[in-house]
Amino acid sequence: MSSDRTYHHGDLRRAVLTAALDVIRTEGPAALSLRDLARRAGVSHAAPAHHFKDRTGLLTAIATEGYTLFADALAEAPDLRERGVRYVRFAAEHPAHFQVMFQPALYRTGDPDLIAAKERASVELRAGVDSLPSGGGDDARLTGVAAWSLAHGFATLLLTGNLAGAVGDRDPEEVFRALATPAFAQGGPNWP
Questions:
Q1: Does 190 have pLDDT greater than 70?
Q2: What is the pTM of this model?
Q3: How many CA atoms, within 13 angstroms, populate the side-chain half-sphere of residue 158?
Q4: Which whole-number Å values give the CA distances from 124 to 6, 51, 136, in the listed order?
Q5: What does the radius of gyration of the chain's CA atoms come to, in whole angstroms?
Q6: d(C-alpha 81, C-alpha 64), whole Å
Q7: Is 73's pLDDT higher than 90?
Q8: Which of the two residues, 75 and 132, has the higher pLDDT score?
């Protein structure tokens, strides 16, 4: 390896993020090491610290990117059910981001960019509840929790391989859509 390659990289930040996402997808967040990621990117072991400071900074950047991508994925969905479908699709297309986003012990929860990205995603999720004919009714918060639980639970079970037998060769998005339709028919769930 030449010294130029050791210290210069076209887009080191992106290269380290991409390598980190690959590690998380295959081995989980616990397997991350800045030294290993530097080796994978072909740079000095100290180079990633210039962009992320430490492992927690890297995971904060991954969570922030994840919430930004997530908000983008939800933004064009016309209603609550389709936001749930987009939730499942996001998890399937971005499994490493998904793993990190919902483990706040891994990252700096007070990071301003992360807070902004999470808030934007929350706004998009709430817009789905607001799209119900009753606007979510008096139980809008509970409707949101129910929708989130259904989508997040389904996505998590899908990613961990626990739905393989139940879903079979059917499209997971269509299976989720079929599950979500009765749950949110007629303006939202009926609460006891």
A1: no
A2: 0.87
A3: 27
A4: 42, 29, 14
A5: 19
A6: 25
A7: yes
A8: 75
Mean pLDDT (whole number) for 151-173:
94
The residue among 66, 81, 78 whose CA lies nearest residue 178 is 81
Q: What is the DSSP string of the chain?
A: --HHHHH--TTHHHHHHHHHHHHHHHH-GGG--HHHHHHHHTS-TTHHHHHHSSHHHHHHHHHHHHHHHHHHHHHT--SHHHHHHHHHHHHHH-HHHHHHHT-GGGS-TT-HHHHHHHHHHHHHHHHHHHTSTTTTGGGHHHHHHHHHHHHHHHHHHHHTTTTHHHHTTS-HHHHHHHHHHHHTGGGSPPP-
pLDDT of residue 2: 39
Using alpha carbons, list the distances in angstroms from residue 104 to 38, 59, 110.
24, 10, 10
Task: Give Cα 128 to chain centroid, integer Å.
Answer: 17
Report residue 6 as tokens. Answer: 């050791």
Tokens of 24: 């998380």
